[in-house]
């Protein structure tokens, strides 16, 4: 395999009737998937030239999945925009991208695609008067522009090549052996690269992939209850909600749980083992620009707080402000060298957001390696708080708060303080809203685990816990709520 989705035709010839992709109760067999993609590739080729960008502003469903694959296979670049963005964000990104073709559910678009349509309707909406000749891509060609939140302004659009994703697919295959024997459940939005990766990797490995049109914990549980799902992807917040919705049911068919996007909470281990008794868990640490960086697997002696060892084919170094390599135990910028790195930004971000040292790249995450090569995160430059002249990583405070048994999630924020410059404020989501932890209990918990300057001065509870579309805690919204003194933030007793 040299380009993304290239194996699908051969898989269709090997087992034409094998299930390939299920969305919303409709399943495409391998032969139908290949035939549908061939028609879509001709339609895309008739409207665009090789290398041109096709903007997809679509909900999860067949339309987004099939058009993404068709663009990849015919040498075009699929930009996957989030339909939940504001008009300002969408218009700004489209103006910056200047795509040749815009396919959206609503608004200004070259092609309007209603939500929930099946494969035939997707082809019909795109069918031109004639068909163009698809142009097979080269490994070095870009095929995908994904987006991640920018600290200011527009979302950052990162560009990925076929070669980078194919390299990550091959490394993942050696680690997890996903294949025709598997049924993969990808319950999250394709605007999150984890679930787009799950879709493409599963399909080209010959697995049956099921996607949800919208993440709903009960829908995920219903799918798991059918008893044939063997691989489950998710971010920790989603997986926690699935565990809660399971209500004690067990799903022994699941052999592998793959998570990314945030640190795996230690308190979920026992519940996961009970509900998924046959599963091993693997947690990725990475970034949109870097792809896989580190891997922590259940059953390994992962030190407390570590995000794992460097992923196969990944070299991690820790460097100081002068670029010098730091010894084990010293905190510095995490630099990554691997065949999985991105090609650069298509929108926003700018190279100033990155730090380069030779072929190694850093996105501003700070951490350290121990003597055995385990990687630990301190935090990200953009979330560093300075209080009383001390640099405090918000993530360090959050990890301590989330280790308290009464806290399901936490965010550390700063507010102006005349004495300290910035006062630390903890906002938590209790595990049980009816019985939230007392502020005094959290103070005592932090006192034993954090230096005095790193301890929050105020403790609030959020009645409404905002999430990003990818299922992560929306720290920016919570910061805005704090600045506005939103009544949904209440002092803990």
UniProtKB/TrEMBL annotation:
Keyword terms of this UniProt record: Ligase
Record bears the keyword DNA-binding: no
AMP-binding enzyme C-terminal domain segment(s): 396-472
InterPro entries, sorted: AMP-bd_C (IPR025110), AMP-bd_C_sf (IPR045851), AMP-binding_CS (IPR020845), AMP-dep_synth/lig_dom (IPR000873), ANL_N_sf (IPR042099)
UniProt keyword Ligase, yes or no: yes
Domain AMP-dependent synthetase/ligase residues, every copy: 11-345
GO biological process annotation, one example: fatty acid metabolic process
PROSITE patterns: AMP_BINDING
Pfam families, per database record: AMP-binding, AMP-binding_C
Family the UniProt entry places it in: Belongs to the ATP-dependent AMP-binding enzyme family.
PANTHER family registered for this protein in UniProt: ACYL-COA SYNTHETASE (PTHR43201), MEDIUM-CHAIN ACYL-COA LIGASE ACSF2, MITOCHONDRIAL (PTHR43201:SF5)
Protein name: AMP-binding protein
UniProt organism field: Kaustia mangrovi
